[in-house]
Amino acid sequence: MLPKRTLSNFEKLPNDLLGDILSRVAEISRTSLRNTMAASPELAKVANDKRVNKKMNLNPLAMKPLQALNRYTQLMERCLQHRNTEVHYIKGIQEYFHRNNTNIGLHHLKSAAEGSYENGMYIYGIIMLCRGAEEEGKKYLEKLGWKQNKGKATQC
């Protein structure tokens, strides 16, 4: 039988506060969150906090959304349940362009755009322009602030 491990002062903090801290770690890097969870079983329990899944940094998947088609499904579902904007973008790209489910894809891309995810705002705005919904498309493209900052175009 393993000896009972004593909790650190950090692990003794209230779960609500730990959830907030872990959500900030998740926002910076999924790898850092995974390392934190591996270091402490107590913190791993708290990592299921909805704020963690909502703020989870999925940028590596967002840059290559088709790689997540058959992988990361549980992570993607958890993040979708908590309205993570990056996962809406990833699902939108997958559905709209790969699976040819344009309505579902647009729903996810619009959710990403409404959540102020810049790549989502850009792609949703462009798609709306191409589909003839000029006002809708312009609305999201203008939110990117391209008129004020021309360098913004190269970021998306």
TrEMBL record:
Residues 71-156 form the At2g35280-like TPR domain. It holds the Pfam family TPR_27. It comes from the Eukaryota. This is At2g35280-like TPR domain-containing protein.
